[in-house]
């Protein structure tokens, strides 16, 4: 490749930031995303910003079930430009029925934005998603939302980040008052006060000050809040963590921003700081070592497969994260697992229902590939060579159902449906030992409904799902795997790759099994 191209590649990589927002439903993810897109003037939306009301999900009507429920089942990708940067937001399903896709999507992000409701603090779904990010060691930025409402004391919130999530924090700004008395935030780096006006202001109103003891701050805050602010900031200066860029990069320290997404307050400040601090597309592990985004040969991997985005076509779309090189429409790449060259003729990003054909794309970008059934989660595509990215983790399901076909004559279609739907990666299938009963495992209840619906619609198989009471799946690994020697008083099954998996009803049962089988490892993700 010519030097011109490598310069261009470097330039494009430097511009990019690819992140996911992690939060619990209702924390304000949709609202924050919308504000971010407004700043940028969105250029591409793969999917939609989830509608929080039924009439707002017009762009995501891919699946009937979404229409029926008025929620978005699928994750999506959004792209926008802001001050010389190209930003990719990987959305994660905001409904509490999230799926394994949500976890896997996080593997395609280079950093995460953790959104927290100031009244509720760290909630269950945030915690789960945080742990996945933590394992990858990616930088995590925190936005504490809804400061226009009465919330928890900011120190308590920081304490919670540390106690519940085990991450240290550095507040980039600090609230002055709260709820009805919310006056704004004091920016610690720029030593200025960002004034809260209460309505959806486009321009940020700021007052530059000499420090938090500047009389202007007192004027803005009023005596009571001023005293509180000075006390708080002094305490932060003395007892708080120092800002340490390296720790931020490793995900050990989270920069914290306070604001109110619905009032568009603090969002632009957050975005600008984020763009400065967040990493450009990071290298990815492969069988040939770390793959640098500046490596000139194109490579990428598929982290998600989504069916029936357009019911008229009944096709599947494979979402590919570009890891290195330049992507050009029509290029031939090696589909490494099957050992064949394929032509990427119809790469897509989506603008609502009208699919937008991508001409070129760079590391950090996500493209949708038309999938006639040739892709699996984790597949690598690369230009020349046989570079393969590390396998994507399989996460422990939390809900289980036994599945049978209602009409035994349809058994063949049933089996085909189960095989194909579980290949998409949001549902796992296990077989009981001996009887070979099928058990499905998911991380969100909605996946069962999607499964049932699609089995009927696409494979004309009516299924019977019987919920089981298990909550945990653990993959059993050891030097000498012999089920006869397992001392496990629980359901033993095998996964698709014939690994032994034990299903447990509660933590007590799991702990007991671990104690009784010291030679076995109980893995939360498939080996
Ligand atoms: P989600 O995607 O994380 O589930 O949250 P979403 O943005 O849908 O926001 C959840 C609710 O919180 C919405 O209210 C939204 O308006 C509100 N919200 C978001 N940011 C703020 C904020 O900074 N301050 C306050 N006070 N509220 C905020 P809703 O009543 O469910 O919907 P709507 O009637 O506003 O549409």
Automatic annotation (TrEMBL):
Keywords, in A-Z order: Cytoplasm, GTP-binding, Nucleotide-binding, Protein biosynthesis
Domain Tr-type G: 14-282
One Pfam family from the record: GTP_EFTU
GO biological process per UniProt: regulation of translational termination
GO CC terms in record: cytosol
Family per similarity comment: Belongs to the TRAFAC class translation factor GTPase superfamily. Classic translation factor GTPase family. PrfC subfamily.
Protein name per Swiss-Prot or TrEMBL: Peptide chain release factor 3
Source organism of this protein record: Paenibacillus elgii
Gene: prfC
């Amino acid at each position: 490749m010519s030097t011109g191209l490598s310069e261009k590649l470097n330039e494009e990589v430097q511009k990019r930031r690819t992140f996911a927002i992690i939060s619990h439903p209702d924390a304000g993810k949709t609202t924050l995303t919308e504000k971010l897109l407004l700043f940028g003037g969105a250029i591409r939306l793969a999917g939609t910003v989830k509608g929080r009301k039924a009439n707002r999900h017009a762009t995501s009507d891919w699946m009937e079930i979404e229409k029926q429920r008025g929620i978005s089942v699928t994750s999506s990708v959004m792209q926008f430009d802001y001050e010389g940067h190209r930003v990719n937001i990987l959305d994660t399903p905001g409904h509490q029925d999230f799926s394994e896709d949500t976890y896997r999507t996080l593997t395609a992000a280079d950093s995460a934005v953790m959104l927290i409701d100031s009244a509720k603090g760290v909630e269950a779904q945030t915690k789960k998603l945080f742990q996945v990010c933590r394992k990858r060691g990616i930088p995590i930025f925190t936005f504490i939302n809804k400061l226009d409402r009465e919330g928890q004391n900011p120190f308590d919130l920081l304490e919670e980040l540390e106690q519940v999530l085990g991450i240290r924090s550095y507040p980039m700004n600090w609230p002055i008052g709260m709820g009805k008395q919310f006056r704004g935030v004091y920016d610690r780096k720029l030593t200025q006060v960002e004034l809260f006006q209460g309505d959806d202001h486009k321009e940020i109103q700021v007052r530059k000050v000499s420090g938090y003891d500047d009389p202007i701050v007192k004027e803005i805050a009023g005596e009571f809040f001023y005293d509180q602010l000075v006390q708080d900031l002094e305490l932060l200066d003395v007892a708080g963590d120092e800002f340490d860029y390296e720790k931020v990069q490793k995900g050990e320290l989270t920069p914290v921003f306070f604001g109110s997404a619905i009032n568009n307050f603090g969002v632009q400040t957050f975005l600008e700081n984020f763009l400065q601090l967040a990493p450009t597309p990071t290298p990815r592990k492969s069988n040939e070592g770390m793959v640098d985004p500046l490596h000139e040969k194109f490579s990428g991997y598929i982290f998600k497969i989504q069916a029936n985005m357009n019911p008229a076509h009944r096709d599947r779309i494979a979402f590919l994260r570009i890891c290195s090189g330049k992507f050009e429409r029509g290029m031939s790449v090696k589909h490494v697992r099957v050992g064949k060259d394929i032509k990427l003729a119809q790469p897509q990003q989506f603008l609502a229902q009208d699919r937008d054909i991508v001409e070129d794309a760079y590391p950090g970008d996500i493209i949708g590939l038309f999938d006639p059934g040739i892709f699996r989660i984790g597949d690598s595509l690369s230009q020349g060579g046989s570079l393969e990215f590390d396998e994507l983790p399989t996460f422990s399901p939390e809900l289980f159902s036994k599945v049978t076909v209602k009409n035994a004559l349809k058994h063949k279609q049933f089996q085909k449906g189960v095989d194909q739907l579980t290949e998409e990666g949001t549902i796992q299938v296990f077989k009981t030992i001996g009887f070979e009963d099928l058990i499905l495992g998911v991380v969100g209840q909605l996946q069962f409904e999607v499964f049932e619906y699609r089995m009927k619609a696409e494979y004309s198989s009516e299924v019977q799902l019987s919920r089981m009471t298990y909550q945990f799946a653990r993959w059993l690994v050891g030097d000498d795997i012999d089920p006869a020697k397992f001392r496990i008083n629980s359901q033993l099954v095998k996964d698709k790759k014939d690994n032994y998996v034990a299903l447990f009803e509660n933590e007590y049962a799991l702990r007991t099994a671990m104690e009784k089988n010291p030679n076995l490892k109980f893995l939360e993700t498939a080996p």
